[in-house]
Each structure stands twice: as structure tokens, then as C-alpha cells.
Amino acid sequence: MGIGPFIINAVWYLPAATITFAIFYLLWWLGLRICRIESKKAKWVSLPVFAFLVALLVLIPSRPSDVFTSAFGFAPPSDVSGLKTERYLVGQSGGCFIRFTADTNTVAKIIARGLSSTDTNRLYQLATSGDSGDWSPPKWWRPEELGWGADFYSAVFTNTNSYDAVHEFLAYNPATHLAYFRRRDID
Q1: Residues 145, 119: contact at Cβ < 8 Å?
Q2: Can you say whether the dihedral through the CA atoms of 14, 137, 134, 73 is positive or negative?
């Protein structure tokens, strides 16, 4: 992640984390009062408990199967293998990188969500961080290994009630069953 997204996230999430901790600490303090626990150590235990809960909140939805399910609306079927994912957030925007192998039926189910065939120039969208340079691809992100014969799909989904947009790019080689998927959520 570059310095720009880091600063945006710090500005965005630091106040939110502070407010969330204040609410958590108030509830923790009320719980101690209700249970009649007077120890000062019990109050300090709130810090590691809060950190543990935040870690769970961040790590659990970042599991590869959860990222796949979130991106495509269904859990990875048994034919999906070699699943690698990375999810990222920049302020209220974000996205994910997904690499996997799957049979054509699973890929057809993904395409049926609204993706349409596009030209091979879209490989650039998969190979780079995207239009705004919001996030660098992970080290395992190598769409060039798709080789010749890959099919490219894309979609832009918008929310008419706001300025939200979701850009999705999929490249799939039916001969090798290798797929690369890139999603950018823009708010």
C-alpha cells in the first residue's frame, strides 16, 4: 500500500476507532460495575480485549473463502482450487484481488452476475493497480500467466441512489482453468 492510501485510512479510521473504543470502554466499565468488580487491572484488560475483537473483525472476513463469497455471492464450490485473495480498504472505498482455478460452470456462474465480454486491453486493468493507483497488487498477482486464449470480462455496477460504483474485471483461460478477478469499490 502506498503512502496516500495509508494517510487516507489513518484519517478515516483513527477517529472511528477512538469513538468505537470509547463506547466499548463505557460498556466494559458498566459490565464491571454490574458484576461488582472494582479492580483497576480489570479496567486495563479492556485494551487487549478490544484489540483482540478488532483483529477478529479484520481477519475473519479476509479469509479467502469469505472474500470469494463476498465478491461472487456464493461460496467457492469444490472445483475451485488454488484460491488466493487479498482484500483492501481505502477510506470507504476498497476492493479485492482473487486468483483461482475452476471449471467453466463456476466461471459461467460468475459471469452471469452481469459481466460481459470485453477486449484484451483490459489485461492492463488486471495487471496494474487500476485507474487511481489505490492499491498495489499482491506479489502473487501475475495475470500474464494466463497466456494466450484467455477470455476477458468486465462490468460496472452503479447505485442510482448515490455515487457508488463497482468495477469488476475477470480474465479466464478455459484451457488451463486459471482465473484472475479484480474488483474496485468506489465511493
Answers
A1: no
A2: negative
- How many C-alpha atoms does 5 have within 13 Å on its Cβ side? 15
Q: Which of 59, 75, 91 is the last residue of a domain?
A: 59
Is the domain of 94 the same as that of 133? Answer: yes
Return the closest-CA partner of residue 18 out of 66, 60, 50: 50
Tell me: the pLDDT tens digits for 37-60?
A: 877 777 788 878 877 777 766 656
Element housing 69 (H / E): helix 64-72
Reported as type and span, the H/E element at residue 179 is strand 178-186
Q: Whole-model pTM above 0.85?
A: no
Cα(22)–Cα(124) distance, integer angstroms: 44
For residue range 78-128, list pLDDT tens digits in order.
999 999 998 877 666 778 899 999 999 999 999 999 999 987 665 555 555
C-alpha cell at 132: 487511481
Overall domain count for the chain: 2
Tell me which residue of 92, 61, 88 sits closest to 164, measured CA to CA. 92
Pairwise CA distance, residues 129 & 122, whole Å: 12
| Confidence check: pLDDT of 1 > 50 | no
Question: How many whole angstroms separate alpha carbon 116 and alpha carbon 113?
Answer: 9
